[in-house]
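User: Here's a structure from my thesis project, written as structure tokens. My advisor, Dr. K., wants to see whether a designed sequence matches the one we expressed. Can you design one independently, without my sequence as a hint?
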């Protein structure tokens, strides 16, 4: 640790959470590397019809999105999920003690004469507490819906924080048959690659077709024609993999060949060659954090929780989420690693940024201790019931209501 770095203390963390004159943000810029080393080829995510999300700057530099903000948040959020218990009944993941472990029982399956439940953690849902499956889980919706109402009408984040704190941490939008309340992310992370060149791939699948007798081939062709299907799609004919599939609308504008040559917009993608750097940027928004308001009233031997307690609690979760060493196996063909040490900065309203130590062993222990202390009072207000059952009938009602709303809009 450099002597120029500020050492984290409880007093400093309290100040970040509550002092309006404190830093506006905490920021980390991480350099990442392909496991193959500098200049490696990696595979970004693909999106319908457009392929890779690559922007071209005014100087010609091409910048590729390697992992979006939403994807990063969905990768980080499960760090707070229970990973099971050891033989002594102790939780294996210490971070699981910091948030309610709410689970939705989706259905009951039977295999080899034994029944088992298929469950989904609230921490795994893409839209968090505003997810459609939550709305279709009556006992959970009875907790979540009033919390959103309280947030919408009175700006009180306390009830939602006690049920689904990561919804406030990673952002949530109650857009599905709800209040319409939208909360910004307190932590934002994104991975980009700079100065990239798109590569293409081609493959050829060779089937058993040539080894079949002519009468066998004719029978298969006749059957495929009757069933209106392609032999190549069923594995009985050779098939090249040169062009990628797009929607019918996109195909009218993106032909496979253009000016007598293969159209790059339709070629099968083969990753990007990174000639620049791969960077992950993490920002903890302290302005948005300090805007959190509301409380939890004291009742039934539960101590009251003030707005400043909510902010300190959410800050502690944000710091743990921001400093975790996540696995960087983002997808097939995109396995990354951290290039060097992390240097966090506290960003003031004016003036120079200040280095802050959030990653040394001492700092990590201080953050963990702070988080456990902040969670101690909040946890007394967690729901007494953590298991809830999905109701297919309620899901159908939601679908019917959405269809009715769409018809009114169309009219």
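Assistant: Designed independently from the structure alone:
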């Amino acid at each position: 640790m450099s002597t120029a770095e500020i050492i984290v203390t409880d007093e400093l963390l309290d100040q970040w959470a509550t002092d309006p004159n404190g830093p506006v943000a905490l920021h980390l810029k991480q350099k990442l590397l392909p496991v193959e080393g500098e200049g490696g080829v990696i595979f970004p995510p693909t999106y319908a019809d457009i392929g890779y999300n690559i922007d071209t700057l005014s100087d010609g530099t091409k910048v590729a999105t390697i992992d979006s903000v939403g994807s990063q948040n969905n990768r980080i959020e499960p760090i707070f999920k229970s990973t099971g218990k050891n033989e002594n009944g102790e939780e294996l993941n210490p971070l699981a003690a910091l948030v309610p472990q709410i689970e939705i029982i989706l259905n009951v399956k039977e295999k080899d004469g034994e029944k088992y439940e298929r469950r989904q953690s609230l921490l795994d849902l893409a839209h968090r507490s505003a997810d459609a499956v939550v709305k279709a889980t009556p006992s959970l919706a009875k907790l979540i819906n009033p919390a959103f109402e309280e947030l919408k009408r009175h700006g009180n984040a306390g009830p939602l924080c006690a049920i689904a704190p990561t919804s406030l941490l990673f952002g949530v939008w109650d857009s599905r048959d709800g209040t319409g309340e939208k909360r910004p992310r307190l932590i934002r992370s994104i991975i980009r690659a700079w100065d990239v060149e798109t590569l293409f791939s081609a493959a050829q699948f060779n089937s058993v077709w040539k080894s079949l007798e002519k009468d066998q081939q004719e029978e298969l062709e006749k059957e495929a024609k009757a069933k209106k299907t392609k032999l190549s799609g069923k594995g009985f004919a050779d098939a090249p993999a040169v062009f990628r599939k797009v929607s019918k609308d996109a195909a009218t504008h993106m032909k496979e060949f253009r000016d007598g040559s293969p159209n790059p917009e339709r070629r099968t993608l083969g990753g990007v060659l990174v000639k620049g750097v791969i960077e992950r940027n993490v920002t903890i928004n302290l302005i948005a954090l300090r805007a959190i308001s509301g409380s939890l009233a004291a009742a039934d031997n539960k101590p009251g929780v003030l707005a400043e307690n909510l902010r300190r609690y959410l800050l502690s979760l944000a710091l743990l989420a921001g400093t975790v060493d996540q696995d960087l196996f983002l997808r097939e063909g995109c396995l990354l690693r951290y290039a060097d040490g992390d240097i966090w900065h506290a960003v003031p309203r004016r003036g120079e940024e200040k280095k802050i130590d959030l990653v040394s062993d001492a700092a990590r222990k201080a953050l963990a201790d702070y988080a456990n202390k902040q969670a101690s009072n909040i946890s007394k207000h967690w729901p007494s019931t953590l298991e809830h059952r999905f109701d297919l009938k309620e899901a159908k009602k939601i679908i019917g209501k959405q269809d009715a709303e769409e018809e009114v809009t169309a009219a």
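When you compare it with your expressed construct, this may help: Residues 201-272 form one domain.
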